[in-house]
């Protein structure tokens, strides 16, 4: 996430942050292009990204369940996107018009099954690297779940977990 965006997040006081968080529950049409809503969304997406990265750094990813319907998400994802590389994502596989046409029906299958399935979130392009401005793309929550469930099951997030373990061992012995 851009440093300027993060600096703007720090400028919200507790009351403003609470009001912005409440506003996120309203339909998008109620706001137009309200910068406070965009800032609140960015805060929420950034926090989600931090929590998730900390989770895969501290718990073996192959044992993680991200939703109550992980098995269904994974099955549907791999049936629909058999050839999609999840270790290193190509943004065109998510954002091009042909990709959007394929993702849209996939995402809609989870309406009512996955809470906030179409909320925006941040997704790492390279599963071996942390969230950063150059390694992050915007995606819907169900795209995030589908790709991260596949990464966890297919061993793509193992590098993050192993690297965190190695760092902890070095700190203990150092």
Q: Report how far the terminal alpha carbons are from each other.
A: 32 Å
Number of strands: 2
- Which range best describes the helical content: under 10%, 10-25%, 25-40%, 40-55%, 55-70% or over 70%? 55-70%
DSSP helical segment count: 8
Helices and strands, in N-to-C order? HHHHHHEEHH
Which residues sit in consecutive blocks of at least 5 with pLDDT less than 50?
1-13
Q: Please identify which CATH superfamily we are dealing with.
A: yst0336 like domain
What does the largest sheet look like? 2 strands, antiparallel
Which architecture would the CATH scheme give at its second level? Orthogonal Bundle
Description:
The protein has a single domain (3-173), classed as Orthogonal Bundle (yst0336 like fold). 56% of the residues lie in helices and 6% in strands. It is built from eight helices and two strands; from the N terminus they run ααααααββαα. It has helices spanning 3-10, 14-23, 35-58, 70-80, 92-95, 97-108, 141-153, 158-173; strands at residues 120-124, 136-140. α2 packs across α3 (35-58), α3 packs across α8 (158-173) and α4 (70-80) packs across α7 (141-153). The chain is globular and about 50 Å long. It starts with a helix and ends with a helix. It comes from Zosterops borbonicus. Residues 37-161 form the Polysaccharide biosynthesis domain. One of its GO terms (cellular component) is cytoplasm. It holds the Pfam family PBDC1.
């Amino acid at each position: 996430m851009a440093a300027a965006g993060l600096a703007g997040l720090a400028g919200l006081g507790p009351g403003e942050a609470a009001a912005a968080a409440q506003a996120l529950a309203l339909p998008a049409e109620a706001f137009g292009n309200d910068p406070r809503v965009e800032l609140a969304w960015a805060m929420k997406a950034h926090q989600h990204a931090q929590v998730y990265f900390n989770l895969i750094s501290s718990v073996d990813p192959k044992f993680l369940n991200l939703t109550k319907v992980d098995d269904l998400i994974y099955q549907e994802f791999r049936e629909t996107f058999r050839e999609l590389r999840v270790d290193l994502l190509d943004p065109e596989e998510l954002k091009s018009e042909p990709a959007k046409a394929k993702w849209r029906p996939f995402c809609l299958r989870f309406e009512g099954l996955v809470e906030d399935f179409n909320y925006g979130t941040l997704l790492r392009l390279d599963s071996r690297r942390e969230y950063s401005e150059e390694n992050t793309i915007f995606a819907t929550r169900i795209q995030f779940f589908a790709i991260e469930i596949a990464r966890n099951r297919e061993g793509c997030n193992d590098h993050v977990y192993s690297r965190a373990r190695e760092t902890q061992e070095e700190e203990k012995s150092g």
